Amino acid sequence: MTAEITEITNLTNQLLIAMPSLDGSFFGRSVTYICEHDDQGAMGLVINKSSEISVSRLLNEIDIETSESSALSSKNVLTGGPVQTDRGFVLHTGGKIWTSSIALPGDINVTTSKDILQSLSTEQAPDQFLLTLGYAGWSAGQLEDEMANNAWLTIEADHDILFNTPVEKRWERAIQKLGIDISQLSAISGHA
Question: What CA–CA distances, in Å, run from 5 to 67, 71, 127, 181?
Answer without folding.
Answer: 51, 44, 36, 21
